[in-house]
Amino acid sequence: MDSVVHKELLTRAFNIKKRFLGMYKMANAGHVGSSLSVAEVITFVRFGWMNDEDEIILSKGHAAAAIYSMLAEEGILSEADIKTFYKNDTFLAAHPPVNKVKRIPFATGSLGHGLSLAAGFGLSYKLKKSGKKVFCITSDGELNEGTIWEAALFIAHHNLSNVVWLIDRNKLQGFGRTEDVMKLEPLDGKLKAFGFNVIAVDGHNFESLENAKLAVETGKLPTAIICNTTKGRSWKLYEDSVDCHYLPMKDDQYDFVQHEIEKDYNNRLNHLTQ
């Protein structure tokens, strides 16, 4: 990956995380861990991959703050808009709204439905012989939903290679470890059996995500990218814990997480120059 592009992605991811952490703190709201696990994935899809005419669907709608922050980074939402997060009469609710914000085509967060919506976009693009893509980001917990697997069958049957499915594989969901609640492994084997090209990446690493992008663009099958992530990354007290799915941040925790993401950002920038 070009070092200039890499630096831009790191800076945008830092800005996005810093902004949504402030949003969560201001609202005294939970789901911090869900946004921290997917921050780099959202950053890369929007600023390192998709074209302006492509669609992005955040099926794991409880990470809405991350996509709102991404839209602010893009200039679609203002900082004044961001300050209304979670407040009365806001259009920046706890889950993404419908027909309120550019780049949010559907209300999501009732888990399991985003991939079906992406499948509809993909078939439409194929019938119209359009070059557009649709990127769908799901959690791993929502793979418990039957609609996910119906959509996977549909996408594979119609060979919708214009659908890029990214799975936030942080191995946690609302009630515990994914493998304890409902076993998903071998996840790659299941997806391959359904007819997908399957790629596993480090979901916090832009070079790993870039390699997946290159593989997708040279492939002929629909692709599922298993993004191995850590829920609540940088929130050391609750990192890789169900608690970070629900709990808001106390003042000292907020300061600590902000410090950690800035330290991580500077470390990564220093690594680029070595």
Question: How would you characterize this protein structure?
Answer:
This protein is an alpha/beta fold and 274 residues long. It has a single domain (3-273), classed as Thiamin diphosphate (ThDP)-binding fold, Pyr/PP domains (Rossmann fold). Helices cover 49% and strands 12% of the residues. A five-stranded parallel β-sheet has the order 1-2-3-7-6, sandwiched between helices. A two-stranded antiparallel ribbon has the order 4-5. Helix 1 runs antiparallel to helix 2. The relative contact order is 0.16.
Q: Give the helix proportion (percent range).
A: 40-55%
Cα-to-Cα separation, first versus last residue: 15 Å
User: How many separate helices?
Assistant: 11
- Average pLDDT, rounded to a whole number, is 95
What do we call the CATH homologous superfamily? Thiamin diphosphate (ThDP)-binding fold, Pyr/PP domains
Summed up, the domain count is 1
Indicate the CATH class: Alpha Beta
Which key terms come to mind for this protein?
single chain, Rossmann fold, two-stranded antiparallel ribbon, five-stranded parallel sheet
Question: Quick gist of this model?
Answer:
With 274 residues, the chain is of the alpha/beta class. It contains eleven helices and seven strands. The protein has helices spanning 3-27, 32-48, 64-74, 79-82, 114-127, 146-157, 178-181, 187-193, 206-218, 243-246, 251-273; strands at 55-58, 134-139, 163-169, 172-173, 176-177, 197-202, 223-228.
What is the strand and helix layout of this fold?
Elements: H1 3-27, H2 32-48, E1 55-58, H3 64-74, H4 79-82, H5 114-127, E2 134-139, H6 146-157, E3 163-169, E4 172-173, E5 176-177, H7 178-181, H8 187-193, E6 197-202, H9 206-218, E7 223-228, H10 243-246, H11 251-273
Helix pairs in contact: 1-2, 1-3, 1-11, 2-3, 5-6
